[in-house]
Each structure stands twice: as structure tokens, then as C-alpha cells.
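Task: sequence design from structure.
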């Protein structure tokens, strides 16, 4: 009876593994590194570490500083992905202190979509690409109290929407069958240790899915990961090229769509 039960358990896991996305060169999982808010510490610390490791990552830009335009252009030219994170990063007023004109309660879905469209124009002027993905500010999807995701989908302004929550089911999911308007990602507490970052990648490797990391500051700014912990994660990933495909979010989604 015990053996029968374990056989049933194995079969159940076998079915779930078989339904996972097949990644390039037989990799067990895709790992996507994303960085939000166009922070200087990302240009100073994340980009050099990624380039040294030979990895491409995704940067969601909002509140872009004029002085940083040449550097973001170089980041895009280097093969990294620039994504849309609105122009002014509106979140609910209760999230953190902000100008009352730039809290999400002060928007309508139409005004937020207009802002997303204008940020697309800015991104295209920087990277020369016609289409961009999108990450929700603060992981919130409301403008003036109304969920704007369906309006965004209908407007076809962005190629995908990255959120900020992730479950173990998400990590095992067939990415090709995921709703591109709900791509889960995981943020980490300030000062997160390398071991915790690596554990998240390991979970994806075990499940055959995709792990989307969400970073803010790297050795600076806020919600920081230290340069050391960030580099330790990259070293761990770099040591496993056959098991883990590190790529941009757009590339991972494009691959999954073409190889369901
Ligand atoms: Zn943000």
C-alpha cells in the first residue's frame, strides 16, 4: 500500500513536471532579474555585475533623470531590457508619503493609461524599440479606485504586466499558459542575504518553472540588496549554465510562447 501511494505521488509529480515550460538547451528553469524605479545604484552596481557575469536583465523605469539618459541608453544597447513603470510611479496614498497629484487615487484608468503610453514614448526614444513590458507601481493595479488591468490589456499598450507576488504554484506553472497580464515576481526585504536569494532560484530549478526577482536599490538607494549578496547570487547562477537560463523577462515570455 505504501509503495502504491508513493507511486501515485511520483506520478502526480511527473505530470506536473511534464507540464512545465521547456527552456532552451534543456535548462530546468528560467531566472529573470528585474530592477525597478530607474535607480542610480542599479547603474552603479547592478549593471557592472550583470555585464561581468554575461547576464541580461530587465529594468523598469519611472522618474527617469535627464542626466541618466546616456547610461540607460548604454544599458539597452548592451542587451538589457528597459520596461515601463509609469512616469510618476503612482501608488495608493497610504503606501508612502507622496504629492497628492501623484497618488493612484488622483488618477483614472484613462489618465494612467495615457501616462503609460507617454512612458512608452520615452523608452522608445531611449532604446529604439517599438514595444515594452510593464511593471505595476507598488504591485497595485488601481487608478481612482478602479482596476485598470483589463483596460490596459484592451489598449494593447504593453507586452506583459509584471506584478509583485509569487506562489510556489506560479514557480511550477507552464509559463506559456500564464496570463501575460499577471506575471508574478518576488521582492525581498532590505538587506536580504544571498542565501535567501539563492533559495528562490533553487525553488524554480526544482519546479521547472520561472523565478522573477524584483530588486530596488543595489548597495544604495532603498530596499537594498548589498553588492556582495547580489554578486553571490550571480555567481551561483553563473555556475549552473546547463540548469538555469538567465534572461530578460521579455525573452523568457517570448520563448515560452513559442515553445508551449
Ligand atoms: Zn516601483
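Answer:
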Amino acid at each position: 500500500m505504501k509503495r502504491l501511494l508513493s507511486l501515485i505521488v511520483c506520478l502526480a509529480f511527473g505530470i506536473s513536471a511534464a507540464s512545465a515550460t521547456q527552456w532552451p538547451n534543456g535548462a530546468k528553469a528560467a531566472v529573470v532579474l528585474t530592477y525597478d524605479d530607474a535607480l542610480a545604484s542599479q547603474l552603479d552596481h547592478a549593471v557592472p555585475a550583470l555585464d561581468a557575469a554575461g547576464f541580461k536583465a530587465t529594468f523598469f523605469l519611472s522618474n527617469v533623470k535627464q542626466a541618466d539618459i546616456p547610461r540607460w541608453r548604454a544599458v539597452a544597447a548592451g542587451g538589457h531590457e528597459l520596461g515601463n513603470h509609469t512616469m510618476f510611479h503612482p501608488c495608493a496614498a497610504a503606501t508612502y508619503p507622496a504629492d497628492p497629484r501623484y497618488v493612484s487615487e488622483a488618477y483614472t484608468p484613462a489618465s494612467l493609461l495615457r501616462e503609460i503610453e507617454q512612458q512608452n514614448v520615452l523608452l522608445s526614444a531611449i532604446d529604439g524599440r517599438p514595444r515594452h513590458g510593464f511593471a505595476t507601481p507598488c504591485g497595485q493595479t488601481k487608478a481612482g479606485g478602479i482596476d485598470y488591468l483589463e483596460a490596459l490589456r484592451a489598449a494593447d499598450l504593453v507586452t506583459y504586466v509584471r506584478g509583485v507576488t509569487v506562489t510556489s504554484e506560479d514557480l511550477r506553472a507552464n509559463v506559456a499558459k500564464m496570463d501575460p497580464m499577471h506575471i508574478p515576481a518576488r521582492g525581498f526585504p532590505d538587506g536580504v542575504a544571498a542565501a535567501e536569494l539563492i533559495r528562490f532560484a533553487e525553488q524554480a530549478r526544482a519546479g521547472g518553472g520561472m523565478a522573477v526577482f524584483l530588486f530596488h536599490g543595489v548597495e544604495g538607494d532603498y530596499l537594498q540588496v548589498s553588492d556582495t549578496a547580489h554578486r553571490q547570487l550571480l555567481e551561483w547562477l553563473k555556475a549552473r549554465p546547463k540548469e538555469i537560463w538567465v534572461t530578460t523577462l521579455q525573452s523568457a515570455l517570448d520563448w515560452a510562447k513559442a515553445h508551449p
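Confidence is low (pLDDT under 50) at residues 1-18.
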